[in-house]
Amino acid sequence: MDYKDVELLKSYVTEGGKIIPSRISGVCAANQRKLKIAIRRARNLALLSPMKGYVAQQVIVNRGISENSNRDL
Questions:
Q1: pLDDT-derived band at 72, boundaries 50, 70, 90
Q2: pTM
Q3: Distance from the CA of 36 to the CA of which of 12, 44, 58, 70 falls in 20 to 30 A?
């Protein structure tokens, strides 16, 4: 298992971002551990998103200053 092979790793992750159990995927215990490590590495390096449909959104925080404010900051 290579953490850089994102397409292969995606096939072992559910829509919710969880790793598919070995009893469902048919992977032996040793390869399941290698798969888990590779998926975690890929997530940490942002090669694989935490969830398949996950899209990061930027949150803008309003700190009490209105857009129409004439105050100089």
A1: low
A2: 0.67
A3: 58
